[in-house]
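lol forgot to send this yesterday, sorry. struct tokens for the thing we talked abt
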């Protein structure tokens, strides 16, 4: 996923105006009582928002902000009906939430491929004078205009659809883990905030199937209140079914592993209380930078402080990777 990743956008949609009806009378040399023959107009096109697989960002809406459907054509003489305006379908990534930007109201969560929402209905078709002919009014001179278009300001918010979310302080090894288990190639560097956008990868389990993993970057203390980059990406954790919490074995100048774990867990709960109930796997990462005995001692202390089982991992040497993937797979099946 490139740095053009964009998970929020605002667009304006305008439906088509309906075509007006026509006032016309049949006039032919040998037809003295031709009568009305004005046709109806065509209805205006509507605007739909549709979720499509293969899209991973809202970056296209950075430059294109106005989406307008086609107007219906007016009716004509000789009972000619105006052409219907073409509908407009705006395609967005699966997992996009659509809001009424003016009211702040959630209109739909397009979390399935092909999910569709009508956001602006086209104007109705006007009636020609032929439609008003009756036994008591044989020469109506009345026609109606087409219905007006609808205009709406919409907010789009993308929440990644991942089965597993990887969280942790900067430099905990999140991107390295995603790169080790999938074909994703996130930017990896030995300094904080080297990852500026979420990264998605697919973990292939062969005949067992596959699952999607997401690296959630930029989480630090105060993330739920806007500190660091985490407030931009915390929403992507909400769709995950399982959370891998990475705690680095090496973190100079930072609180101990147990304190770092508690801080970020509180940030997740502050952002969305339901995240505290999400299944979680606690992992001590980057164990390759310490002697084995020292890494195991840190893991024991972490288990005693949190009351949770701690998995040891080095995504670089792949130590503990198979065991972690097996545990994730069992957690997802449960």
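and heres what i got for the seq, position by position
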């Amino acid at each position: 996923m490139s740095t053009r990743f964009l998970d929020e956008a605002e667009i304006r949609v305008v439906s088509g105006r309906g075509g007006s009806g026509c006032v016309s009378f049949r006039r032919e040399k040998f037809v003295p009582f031709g009568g009305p023959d004005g046709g109806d107009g065509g209805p205006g096109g509507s605007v739909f928002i549709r979720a499509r697989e293969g899209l991973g960002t809202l970056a296209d809406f950075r430059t294109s902000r106005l989406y307008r459907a086609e107007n219906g054509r007016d009716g004509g003489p000789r009972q000619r009906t105006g052409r219907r305006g073409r509908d407009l379908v705006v395609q967005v990534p699966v997992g996009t939430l659509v809001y009424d930007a003016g009211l702040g109201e959630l209109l739909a969560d397009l979390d399935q491929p092909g999910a569709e929402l009508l956001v602006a209905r086209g104007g109705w078709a006007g009636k020609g004078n032929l439609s008003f002919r009756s036994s008591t009014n044989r020469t109506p001179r009345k026609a109606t205009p087409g219905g007006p278009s609808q205009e709406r300001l919409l907010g789009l918010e993308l929440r990644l659809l991942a089965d597993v979310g990887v969280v942790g302080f900067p430099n905990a090894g999140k991107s390295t883990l995603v790169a080790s288990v999938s074909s994703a190639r996130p930017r990896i560097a030995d300094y904080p905030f080297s990852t500026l956008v979420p990264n998605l990868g697919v973990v292939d389990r062969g005949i067992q199937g596959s699952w999607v993993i997401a690296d959630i970057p930029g989480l630090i203390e105060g993330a739920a209140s806007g500190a660091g980059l985490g407030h931009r990406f915390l929403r992507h954790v909400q769709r995950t079914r399982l959370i891998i919490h990475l705690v680095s074995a090496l973190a100079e100048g930072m609180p101990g592993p147990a304190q770092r774990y508690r801080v970020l867990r509180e940030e997740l709960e502050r952002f969305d209380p339901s995240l505290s109930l999400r299944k979680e796997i606690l992992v001590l990462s980057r164990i390759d930078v310490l002697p084995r005995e020292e890494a195991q001692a840190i893991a024991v202390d972490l288990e005693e402080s949190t009351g949770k089982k701690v998995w040891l991992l080095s995504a670089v040497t792949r130590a503990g990777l198979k065991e972690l993937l097996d545990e994730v797979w069992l957690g997802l099946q449960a």
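The radius of gyration is 30 Å. anyway ping me if u want another try
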